[in-house]
Amino acid sequence: MNGDRQGRRDLKAEDRALWDQVKKTIEPLRDRPNEVLPDEPAAEKSTAPKRPPKARPAPVAPAVKGPPPLAPIDRRLRQRLARGGASVDARLDLHGLKQAEAHARLGAFLEAAQARGASLVLVITGKGARAPADSLDGERGVLRRQVPMWLALPELRPLVVGFEEATPAHGGAGALYVRIRRRRA
């Protein structure tokens, strides 16, 4: 391989013959000169002047404004919560509620918390009843699985900065800390 032909190989005579047959059966997509393989004889090379490749602009992110991204609870706040140095501004207990009722209450609770200026709330989902042995998914707690998905939905993103599983002192796997986004004026 030559240094000026990065990644290209010289073709064997039988490969060149096959390539020549293929070239006869195809039509160019645009009006541009056919590319010439590097080791073709000079008589077969195109005499058309080669244009330098056009520089393509870097892709630009779309200007569509979507919901802001979720952010995890920072390490210091999490440590203060675990040690009792920080407290939650409000609590919502979803134990025993059906999914539709829990979803509606969660939305109303988060809106009210934002209106009151709360910055951190605790949403208690419970760990759920044990799944029967013959259950297909074998997981526990419908609300425990659903609430994180609801918090990530676009409809709640204007209210939620981020969320994370609570420390054992606040319910562990059966509860979530939810950071509330400040209300814009």
SSE string: HHEHEHEE
Measured distance between first and last alpha carbons = 65 Å
Overall strand count: 4
Average predicted confidence as pLDDT: 77
Largest beta sheet: strand ordering: 1-2-4-3
What is the percent of helical residues?
25-40%
How many structurally independent domains? 2
What CATH calls the topology of the largest domain is Ribosomal Protein S8, Chain: A, domain 1
Task: Estimate the strand proportion.
Answer: 5-15%
Q: What would CATH call the class of the largest domain?
A: Alpha Beta
* Low-pLDDT residue intervals, each spanning 5 or more residues: none
CATH architecture of the largest domain: 2-Layer Sandwich
Largest sheet: 4 strands, mixed
Structural class: alpha+beta
Shape: elongated
Count of discrete alpha- or pi-helical segments spanning 4 or more residues: 4
**Over all CA atoms, what is the radius of gyration?**
31 Å
